[in-house]
Design a protein that fits this description.
alpha/beta; Rossmann fold; 9 strands
């Protein structure tokens, strides 16, 4: 799965790479950048971290003309009042303004890293920015792919969940569980058909920044034979007996319950003669009956 995503054989518009201090993911971002240089007409690289400058050095000389660098790290908070991109800049508008006006070109973006924007801007604003960056109408060209790096150990789970909901693919680096591999990642990929794929893969990154020795991490199945469980009788240690003997079961089955109809009761009910009914009323002592005419004093 990871190899197809890097090479572009598996389509994904917004790829979110989540790394940490223990498992850095900038090398994986560089692999995506080199692959995009071979497939795209224009690549916008937005850098927020000082270390992300080293990623631009891996781009070959023949592909440097495709790279448009947007430096947001020099004065991100606008303390120096410089003219570069900063916290208050409209990122989609700035990227679209520096691009080629040809609408038939295929463009891609690499953002390193989104953590700076998440730390100083609300999460909904960041999600809206990513949505605008992937909109071809806003960017003025066909946006094929956006690769975003975020440091998940700097943010809470709720903020990451909103960003992951926006992305079509989430790649999170994790500790390797194989001695022959240097890296491991957990991939959540949402296909165009709506199918969601989850997979864990081990891999290495070569000196040419290519994915190699890709191996899927299978779930370990416990093959240890299970000991048979002993059924415990809950009525074993009681002071009274809850079970019935065969004779008691037969006696119970012969008891006629008051709410059931056997054949004798059915015949008696059907053959019972119908007589005329009468109503008898016996007043109580508390009943107050006035035998006098209440309208006797009226001149009618």
């Amino acid at each position: 799965m990871l190899g197809d995503l890097v090479k572009g054989r598996e389509k994904s518009v917004l790829i979110l790479i989540e790394d940490s201090v223990e498992e850095p993911g900038r090398g994986l971002v560089s692999c995506f950048l080199l692959s995009l240089c071979q497939r795209m007409d224009e690549i916008h690289v937005v850098t927020f971290d000082p270390k992300s400058q080293s990623m631009l050095k891996v781009v070959p000389a023949e592909a440097q003309a495709k790279i448009i660098h947007h430096n947001c790290q020099n004065d991100f908070l606008k303390w120096k009042q410089s003219a570069g991109l900063g916290l208050d800049s409209d990122l989609p508008k700035e990227i679209a303004a520096k691009g080629n006006p040809n609408k038939d070109r295929k463009i891609a973006m690499v953002i390193d890293s989104l953590s700076s924007l998440l730390l100083f801007r609300p999460v909904p604003y960041t999600c809206q920015t990513l949505h605008k960056l992937s909109d071809s109408n806003v960017m003025g060209a066909s946006v094929e792919q956006i690769v975003v790096l975020v440091h998940h150990d700097l943010h809470d789970a709720g903020s990451l969940a909103l960003i992951e909901h926006t992305a079509s693919t989430v790649i999170r680096t994790s500790p390797t569980q194989s001695g022959g591999h240097e890296f491991c990642c957990n991939i959540l990929h949402k296909k165009i058909s709506g199918k969601i794929t989850r997979i864990n893969e081990h891999f290495n990154i070569s000196d040419q920044l290519e994915i190699e020795n890709l191996t899927e991490l299978k779930a370990v199945i416990d093959t240890t034979p299970q000991q048979p469980t002993v059924q415990v009788d809950p009525a074993a240690n009681l002071t009274f007996n809850l079970s019935l003997t065969d004779q008691e079961k037969r006696a119970r089955s012969q008891v006629k319950l008051p709410y059931t109809y056997d054949q004798d009761r059915i015949d008696a009910t059907l053959n019972k003669s119908v007589v005329e009914g009468k109503i008898f009323y016996q007043p109580d002592e508390a009943d107050d009956f006035d035998e006098e005419d209440p309208d006797d004093d009226l001149d009618v």
